[in-house]
Amino acid sequence: MHRQSPSSWAAISICIAALVHFVLGFSIEFSVDEAHYALYANHLAWSYFDHPPLVGWLQWPLISITSSEGFIRLIPELLWIISCCLVYQVTLEIHRFMQGHNAGYLTGALPPANVCGLMAVLAIIAAPLPHVLAIGLLPDSILAPLSLGLMLMSLRWLCKDYFSLGDWILTGILLGLAGLSKYTAAFTAIAVLLVFLSAPRKSWIGKIGFWLAAFIALVLISPVIYWNWTNDWISFKYQIAHGGGGDWLWRRLAAFLGIQLAVFGPLLILGAFLFLKDCMHATKHSLLALWGFFLIPFIIFASLSGGGGLPHWTSPAWFCLAPFAGIGLAKAWSIQHRKLIRILFFIQLALCIVGFGFVLSGGISSDSVKTNPIADLYGWKLAGQKATELAKINKVDGIAVQNWTLGSRTAWYAKPIPVFVLDQRQDQFDLWFGELPSGANTLLINWSGMPFAAPVGNKSGFENCEPVDNLVIMRFGRVLSKFDFSLCNNWRSPGSSQ
Q: Does residue 210 sit in the same domain as residue 355?
C-alpha cells in the first residue's frame, strides 16, 4: 500500500466499489421504490403525492431514451461517487479547520489530512446500506451529496467568516435542490442555520447575499408548494402522517437503533467516538455545530421510530458523520490502535460481499417464498410482459393489483397500460390512473410474496374472477415466486349503489 498515496487508495477503493455496483445494476430488476420513482419520470409533474419531484426529473433524460435498468442506475451510481468524493473533501476541510483553530484541539497529534480522508471513505464503503443507495435511486441518494455540499459550504463560512456573493448563490441553489429532493432536507437546512448561529457575530443577517440565498431556495422549491396548493396539500398531510407512524413503542426504538448499527456498521460509530475522545479537549461551538448535520436528522428519526420508520431515512446523516469518523479512525490508527479497526472493517466488508452474492443468487432457498426478500427483485419484467399480452387478448380496461408495492413494478413493466390499486388508501396511483370505474373488467395480478384473496363480493369488488394463467419465476433451478393472473368482471367500488 505504500506505493500509492492515501488519496490514490481512496480513489481506487471508490472505483472498485463502483464497478461492483455497475455489475449489480445490470443484473437485477427494479425494486419497488426504484420502479415507483422511475414512473415519476414517465409522468412528469411539478411534484408528487409522496415526494418532491427531483428524483423523477433527474431520471427523465435517460428514461426518455432507454428502459434498461442498468443504464438508468448510472444516475445513483454517479451520485454515490460524488458523495464519496465529498466525504473525502469535507474531511480535509475539517482537518484544515482544526489545524487553523488551535484552541481546544490536539492539532499537533492529528494524522495527515489525506489519511483521514481515506479512513472516512473506507468507513462509508464498508457500510452495507449506502450500497443500496448507489444501485437504486432513492430521494436519499440525492440528498446525501447535497447535504455534504451544504456541509462543505458551512465549513467555508467557518474558515473565512464571510461569504462572497457567489458563495451565497451556491448555498441557495444547494438548499433549493435539497428541498426538491426530499422533505427531510428541512433538517439539513436547520443544521446550516445552526452553523451560522454558532458564529460570535451575526452580521450575515443583514447581508444581501443571505436573503438572496433564501430567495433562490424558495424559488427552487416553489413547484412543490404550487403543486401541493393545487392538490389540497395532500403531500404534506401524507408526510406528517407517515412520519408519525402508528402507536409509539419502545421496542420499535430499540429495533431502530439495532438496525442502524447493523446496516451502517460499528466502524462509523467507533470513529465518531474516537474523534470526540481523542481529537477534542474542549467544546468548540463552531465545530460542534457541524455535528448537527448528523445529530439533528438522526435524533428526529430516532424519536419518531417508536411509531415506525425505514432504516435508509438516516443515510444522508451518516454520510455527514463519516468525515468525523475518518479523523477519529486515522488518529487511532496513527498511535497503533489498529487491530479493532482492521477486524471491524473486514467483518463489514465481508457482510457487504455476502450481501452482493445473496442478491445475485436470488436469496436462500426456502419452501416459504415470504422468507426470501430477494425474490422481490426477480420476475416482474416477465410478469409485466405476460400481463400486457393477457390484457390485450382479453380486451380489459387495465391491470389491477391490491397493494401499491405491487403496482409500481406492474405499472413500470406493463406500461403504458393503466394499473389500478384496489385499496382505500389514497396514493400516487389515484393521481396517475384514477379509480377503477364501476362495471370495469380487468386483469388481476396476484404475487406469491404478497398474496391476497380475490376481491369478489356482493356489495363491493368484482362479480367474479377466473384464473387465466400463471408464471413461475426460477433462478438457478430454484423457485423464487409465482404470479397468478385472473380475469375479473364487473367491478363494484365500495360505496357504489350498484
A: yes
Phi and psi for 480 in degrees, rounded to 5? -95, -45
* Confidence (pLDDT) at 476: 86
Non-local CB neighbours of 311 within 8 Å, separated by 6+ positions: 129, 256, 259, 260, 263
For residue 445, give the H/E element and its range. Answer: strand 442-447
Q: Which residue range(s) make up the domain with 401? A: 373-492
Q: How far apart are the first and last CA of the chain?
A: 75
Residue 498 belongs to some domain of the structure: no
For residue 367, give Cα distances in angstroms to 39, 344, 376, 401, 472. 33, 34, 15, 24, 14
Mind listing the pLDDT tens digit for each residue in 439-469?
899 999 999 988 999 999 777 889 999 999 9
pTM of the predicted model, to two decimals? 0.93
**Which amino acid would we find at residue 336?**
Q
* 3-state DSSP percent of the chain in helix, strand and coil, to 5: 65, 10, 25
Condensed to tens digits (0 to 9), the pLDDT of residues 308-321 reads 788 999 999 999 99
Mean pLDDT of 70-91: 97
pLDDT (0 to 100) of residue 423? 82
pLDDT at site 123: 97
Q: Quick one: 338 and 229 in the same domain?
A: yes
> For residue 164, how many other CB atoms are within 10 A of its CB?
11
Q: What pairing do the DSSP bridges indicate for beta strands 478-492 and 461-475?
A: antiparallel
Specify whether the CB–CB gap between 326 and 123 falls below 8 A: yes
Q: Which helix (H) or strand (E) holds 163?
A: none
**Which residue is listed with cell 455497475?**
22
% of residues, the chain, pLDDT over 70: 93
CA dist., res. 111 & res. 103, Å (int): 18
* Whole-number Å distance between alpha carbons of 462 and 489: 6
Q: Is the pLDDT of residue 368 over 80?
A: no
Q: How many helices and strands, by DSSP H and E, does the chain display?
A: 22, 5
Taking residues 75-82, report their average pLDDT. 98
Q: Is 248 helix (H, G, I), strand (E, B) or coil?
A: coil
Cell triple for 56: 423523477
Q: Are residues 452 and 315 in the same domain?
A: no
| Same structural domain, 179 and 299 | yes
Q: What is the pLDDT of residue 131?
A: 96
Across the range 209-213, mean pLDDT stands at 93
